[in-house]
Specification:
The protein is an all-alpha fold. It has one domain. The chain has eight helices and no strands. It has helices at residues 2-35, 42-89, 91-103, 109-119, 123-133, 144-165, 173-199, 203-228. Helix 2 (42-89) runs antiparallel to helix 6 (144-165). It is elongated, with a radius of gyration of 25 Å.
Amino acid sequence: MEEHFESSEKVRDFVIGMSDGLTVPFALAAGLSGALSSEPNSTQIVITAGLAEIAAGSIAMGLGGYLAGRTEIEHYESEEKREYDEIVHKHEIEIKETKEIFEKYGISEELQEKIAREMAKRPKEWVDFMMRFELGLEKPDKNRATQSAFIIAFSYVVGGLIPLSAYFFTTSAEDGLLYSSIITLLCLIAFGLVKSKLTGQPLLKGTLRVTLIGAAAAAAAFAIAKMIG
């Protein structure tokens, strides 16, 4: 059960990093292509700006993942400390709360009392039980914050290089945008299918959602750049 939970967290981090990596640099490249279509060396400008964005974006996203992971760990530890304090200083109240949990499962009052008193003899197991069933908190992995930061940052870089790759092999920003759009939309479709499969969503609905969001972001950036230009 714990292995499945950890895998789910890693998949979530990968989805966050990859979806933003595919969308944000693609929108930036599209916007710059619209603004620099008549400029010389336009592809080099798009590449330079795109690489800078990928670097900054991956660091920001990775840091966000790290801070979120640390917050989760610190919140759990804070609540765990409070529970240890309560089983000592509010012993009977915690007994009552434990019985109420078992009551929800249809256990008789006599058994509620017996089980709660038996659990009170094992403070660690009792606190673990209350953390999960009273507060709904699972003990996070100590390495969760670092793993989350790495997975999000790495997947953002991979996702960001996909739309930018077309500009390395073209001489104009307009050609780069055309090929980038084709490559990115195909990758968005593939990513949407994988994401939907991993998260249990309907394949068509999940794929369309991911693809349309990426396409809409790029189209908006391109249109705005054209209007300003």
